[in-house]
DNA sequence: TCGCCGATGTTCT
DNA sequence: GAACATCGGCGAT
């Protein structure tokens, strides 16, 4: 069992994706509250791991509570947290944060002042937190990562279909923090 | 406010 | 050669 921030990362990615809402993610002290996630699994046609292991997705088949970082559309970085036991190819895409720590550094990296747009999307939050391939395969319980538990009482969740995919697009595997102004897109 | 489009690396057909 | 877990700029509404 791999437990971090009161979450069992050896569990199913759907469960981990729900539990991550409200957790604080910091990289070198910069980041904020996770407000939006999506679950992926090897049995899922939309997942990078559906067709098996490749050099790109190798860390998704590694130990849980590690990072999987990949390049999206040739120009952005996106980050997943690996779930389940090694070999399952499951993970959770971190899609949006409410910025709380290191605001000035994030504004500088993004070239943007507006707080609501600093981390509203997987590519945007990667840029704001300085995420690159250098973090691929890194453990989440060691520097530069910090995961801090969310509130003890359960948060109110929004649930909807995942964004930007064409396969398995009907699955309701996207989760958000109800009432948050920092989501990448609204839940309808 | 909405929708189209181009940028551009990696993987798959 | 096409598709892609995206984003920002542009023009039309």
UniProtKB/TrEMBL annotation:
Question: Looking at its record, which EC class is this enzyme?
Answer: hydrolase
- One Gene Ontology MF term: DNA binding
Q: Which UniProt keywords apply?
A: DNA damage, DNA repair, Glycosidase, Hydrolase
Does the keyword Thylakoid feature in the UniProt annotation? no
Q: Which Pfam families match?
A: Pur_DNA_glyco
Hey, which family's this protein in? Belongs to the DNA glycosylase MPG family.
EC number(s) given by UniProt? 3.2.2.-
Q: Does the keyword DNA damage apply?
A: yes
Looking at the record's lineage, which domain of life comes first? Bacteria
- Protein name, UniProt field: Putative 3-methyladenine DNA glycosylase
A GO BP term here is: base-excision repair
Which HAMAP family does UniProt cross-reference here?
Answer: 3MGH
């Amino acid at each position: 069992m791999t437990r971090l921030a009161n979450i069992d990362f050896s569990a199913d990615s759907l469960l981990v994706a729900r539990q991550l809402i409200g957790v604080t993610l910091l990289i070198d002290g910069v980041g904020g509250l996770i407000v939006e996630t999506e679950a992926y699994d090897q049995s899922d046609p939309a997942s990078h791991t559906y067709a098996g292991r490749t050099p790109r997705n190798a860390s998704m088949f590694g130990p849980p509570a590690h990072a999987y970082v990949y390049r999206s559309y040739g120009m952005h970085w996106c980050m997943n947290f690996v779930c389940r036991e090694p070999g399952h190819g499951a993970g959770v895409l971190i899609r949006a944060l409410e910025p709380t720590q290191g605001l000035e550094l994030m504004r500088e990296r993004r070239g943007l002042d507006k707080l609501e747009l600093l981390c509203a999307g997987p590519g945007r939050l990667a840029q704001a937190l300085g995420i690159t391939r250098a973090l691929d395969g890194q453990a989440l319980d060691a520097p530069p990562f910090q995961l801090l538990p969310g509130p003890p009482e359960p948060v109110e969740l929004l649930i909807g279909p995942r964004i930007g995919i064409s396969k398995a697009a009907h699955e309701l595997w996207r989760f958000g923090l109800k009432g948050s102004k920092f989501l990448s897109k609204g839940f309808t």
